[in-house]
């Protein structure tokens, strides 16, 4: 899948992406560049297209226009001469398996144990050796602080523990980037901190992360780049000291005054 790239400079490269649902233009020309090892936090009001953007990154939504590259790999298409051909489902699944996705509602498989949840995709989508993946999964569960839960089922865990399992599951893919869609929004307030702490540690360890969140304090702390979206476009982006503490656009100022 790395035929038409040299060394990808960007983990995520979004250019001119448009996406509509019927008459609703949800993404109206989004550009976004994320360098390897950097953390990008996306802020913006509800309905501004943040989740849709994340979903286009791993082809859960197909774009109408524009291109997306993850680690240089053109998502959803392969180039043949000057023409783009849509990938088959099997190749899309393979591409998607290099992108971690952590959802608001954890989305663990309820009928699988914690360990099985983490082991499933590397074995089935990446064809890796089960014993090797299991050893790695146990280490990852320990890293996010739920090593003692490996043989329990998701419903036996708190929301914060389930979300940490979801993060271990994403890491097990050895992904080029991990996408987080409001990872703490479904949690009781007292459980938010433990999940943010794990994400902060990943950031310190040099993972490439794209995080949609309303936790502005966390964004300021962890982000290399803050992106403010509204109405399906990127209104403003830059270091958090700029976008969060000294916003230039009225829409950014209005949003921040509501959430800060
Ligand atoms: P955000 O995550 O910023 O709150 P979303 O990307 O979820 O925004 O949604 C942006 C807009 O697109 C909303 O108006 C939402 O109702 C609409 N939308 C999202 N997904 C779909 C879909 N599958 N079908 C129709 N409309 C959708
Ligand atoms: Mg959303």
Inertia-based shape: globular
Give the termini distance in whole angstroms.
43 Å
Number of strands: 12
Derived from helix and strand composition plus strand pairing, the structural class reads alpha/beta
- State the low-pLDDT regions, or none: 1-5
What Rg is obtained from the alpha carbons, in whole angstroms?
Answer: 18 Å
Bound molecules: adenosine-5'-diphosphate, magnesium ion
Indicate the proportion of strand residues: 25-35%
**Strand arrangement in the largest pleated sheet:** 8-9-10-3-11-12
Helix content: 25-40%
Compressed to H and E, one letter per element, the order equals: EEEHEEEEHEHHHEHEHEEHH
Mean pLDDT score: 95
The main sheet comes to: 6 strands, mixed
Q: Helix count?
A: 9
Keywords: ATP-binding, Cell membrane, Membrane, Nucleotide-binding, Transport
GO molecular function: ATP binding
Main location: membrane
Membrane topology: Peripheral membrane protein
What does this structure look like?
With 260 residues, this protein is α/β, with parallel strands linked by helices. It is built from nine helices and twelve strands. The strands form three sheets. It has a six-stranded mixed sheet with strand order 8-9-10-3-11-12, with helices on both faces. The protein is globular and about 50 Å long. 43% of the residues are buried. Residues 1-5 have low confidence and may be disordered. It binds adenosine-5'-diphosphate (ADP) and magnesium ion. Magnesium ion binds at residues 50-51, 181.
